[in-house]
Amino acid sequence: MPLKRTPPKSPRNVKGNQSTMATIATVEAQGTTTTKTNLTQESSDATAKAKSKSKSVLLHREFGDSLDQGSEALASQRSKRKFEGDDHSDMRSFMADMRIYFSNFTKNQDEKLLNLQESISDIKTQNAEIFKSIEFISNKYDQLSERLRKLEEERGENYNYISAIEERLDFFEKKGRSTYVEIRNIPKIPNETKESLTSLIEKIGSKVGVPVDHRDIKDIYRINSKSIENKPIIMELNTVAIKNNFIVFSKKFNKLQGSEHLNTQHLQLAGPPKKIYISDFLTPKLRRLFYLAREFAKENDFNYCWSSNGNIFLRKRDGSSHIRINTEMDLKKLQNIR
Q1: How far apart are alpha carbons 291 and 295 in whole angstroms?
Q2: How far apart are CA 102 and CA 117, in angstroms?
Q3: pLDDT tens digits, residue range 46-97?
Q4: What pLDDT, on the 0 to 100 scale, is given for residue 292?
């Protein structure tokens, strides 16, 4: 392959180029010198400017510091004045608020005090009314107490009076029954009459050793009781002596016979034997007292309790003295002594 070769430059052109290159070099040298000069000048100017600027900065700093110090002093003075003014303003505002607060507080307290005074006044009025009521009640109480005292006195007097009447009535009733005999536990026989009852009494009299004639019997009958079949027989005799003999001989018979107590077989009555009891015909008051005396004797180890001529007696042991019981109080006293 053939090589492409550039034809050589002509010598004229080389010289021209050399001249041109020299010119360019001269110009470049001048430019370089100028540039160096300019750079040196610029460097000097920059250094001067830097120094000037540095001085300016120093002056500015010093002046700025002094300005700042003055400004701070002025600001501090102004702030101090401002704070002092604010303190006075806050104090005035605080005092105004306190005046309002105390004014409202005083007003509220006055209202409360007024309400309290009204309440106290109402309470005083109520207390006065209560005192009046208490005084009225106290007077009534005194009156009632006095009346109650008088009633108690009257009650005591009436009780004593009634007790006296009861004792007197019981005395007359007992006296009226002085010739009466009560016979218990005899069964009722069919078609029973006074004659049949009188016949039973005659049999009893002959058995115990004290004959009783039908003429000695003033009246005879049965009385009502809880027991329907064995209602008590009440016999009225002509004299107290006949009555006492009839009772005394009956007790002697029972004592002598021992276990062979007077019973229905002695009267030849049908049925199993039943004990027959003969005693005084006591009044209701004495009957109750006799019952209490018998219960007292059982509870307090008394061997004997009996009635005679409308009187009730207790005896502790054989040979000891007898104790007459007139009222229930006698039993209570005897209980306390024991």
Answers
A1: 6
A2: 21
A3: 444 544 444 444 444 544 454 455 555 555 555 555 555 566 788 888 898 8
A4: 94
Residue type at 110? Answer: D
Assign residue 247 the CATH number of its domain: 3.30.70.1820
pTM: 0.55
Residue 185 has pLDDT above 70, yes or no: yes
Provide the domain limits for residue 236: 177-281
Q: How many domains does the chain have?
A: 2
SS (H, E, C) 59-123: HHHHHHHHHHHHHHHHHHHHHHHHHHHHHHHHHHHHHHHHHHHHHHHHHHHHHHHHHHHHHHHHH
Among 281, 302, 329, the domain boundary falls at 281
Neighbours of 211 (CB within 10 A): 12
Residue type, 103: S
- Judging by beta carbons within 10 Å of its beta carbon (0-12, 13-18, 19+), is residue 48 exposed, middle or buried? exposed
With 0-12 CB in 10 A as exposed, 13-18 as middle and 19+ as buried, what is 311?
A: middle
319: left (phi over 0), alpha (psi -120 to 50) or beta: left
